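Postdoc handover notes: sequence design on the structure in folder B. Input tokens:
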């Protein structure tokens, strides 16, 4: 239904939880290397439970390889550096939702190359730098699914 792209994820349990979200929603999980862990890592499998082998996971050596392979689908880049809330976007099945590494987010060059496709999850607390990666993916992915179901009639 949707494509979730994790660019250089660092924390195995986050990726495991996102893998479970992708399985539950019929979404594809794309992992862009370098990863901060091994896909065979025990904690990753524990977070993804026994579902990991059932998830449609695609691993890419770099963003350029991913972009060359997928062509020009609709792409959205989630970042704390944007001002446009994720709910202002109309999503369609097949959209690619990009999320950055836990400690640094998406590369600045990627955000600058796609300013009209950058979205944020608004937060009220000024002291909160960001949300947990798995939480952020869940928020945006389920909004996209909600919209797809509403628009499907």
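Designed sequence:
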């Amino acid at each position: 239904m949707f494509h979730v792209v994790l660019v250089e994820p660092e924390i195995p349990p986050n990726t495991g939880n996102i893998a479970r979200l992708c399985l539950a929603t019929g979404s594809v999980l794309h992992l862009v290397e370098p990863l901060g862990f091994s896909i065979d890592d025990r904690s990753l499998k524990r977070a993804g439970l026994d579902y990991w082998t059932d998830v449609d996971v695609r691993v890419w050596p770099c963003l350029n390889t991913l972009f060359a392979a997928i062509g020009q689908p609709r792409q959205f880049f989630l970042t704390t550096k944007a001002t446009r809330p994720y709910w202002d976007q109309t999503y369609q099945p097949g959209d690619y939702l990009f999320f950055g590494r836990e400690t640094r987010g998406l590369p600045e060059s990627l955000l600058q190359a796609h300013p009209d496709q950058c979205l944020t999850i608004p937060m009220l607390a000024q002291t909160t730098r960001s949300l947990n990666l798995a939480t952020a993916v869940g928020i945006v992915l389920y909004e996209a699914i909600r919209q797809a179901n509403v628009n499907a009639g």
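Context for whoever picks this up: The chain has a mean pLDDT of 91. Don't rerun without checking with the PI first.
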